[in-house]
Design brief:
Strands 2-1-3 form a three-stranded parallel β-sheet, sandwiched between helices. Helices cover about 55% and strands about 10% of the residues. Strand 1, helix 2 and strand 2 form a beta-alpha-beta unit.
């Protein structure tokens, strides 16, 4: 089950990068994945496994940066404030990410809209 889920997530990750790579050479530098949770938890382990599996396909290093605290708000905020260039990703639970998006929208911040296009 874990291997199947990891393979599916990796396929989605690589498919997203592959479509971007058709337009330009991407990635050409390392990628950072922000895990808005403490090291050793489920989010951290998932991010590290995905990074390890993605490195051979992407040809660059994928590092995980744990940023726990504030109900995951610290890590999600750091990802939200990163340049929207695809080199900084946030891996979090859907409930936490949607709550942060809704909170920013209700406060009138347009910054999240640049990252989460539907």
């Amino acid at each position: 089950m874990k291997k199947g889920l990891t393979s599916l997530l990796l396929l989605v990750l690589v498919a997203g990068f592959t479509s971007s790579a058709l337009a330009q050479e991407f990635p050409d530098s390392s990628i950072t994945v922000i895990a808005p949770a403490a090291a050793g938890g489920g989010t951290d382990l998932t991010a590290r496994n995905l990074g390890r599996e993605a490195e051979p396909f992407l040809g660059v290093s994928v590092s995980v940066r744990n940023m726990p605290g504030g109900g995951n708000a610290i890590g999600i905020t750091a990802g939200n404030q990163a340049d929207p260039d695809g080199y900084t990703l946030v891996l979090g639970q859907v409930e936490t990410v949607l709550a942060a998006h809704d909170r920013a929208r209700s406060l009138g911040s347009g910054r999240l809209h640049a990252h989460y296009r539907a």
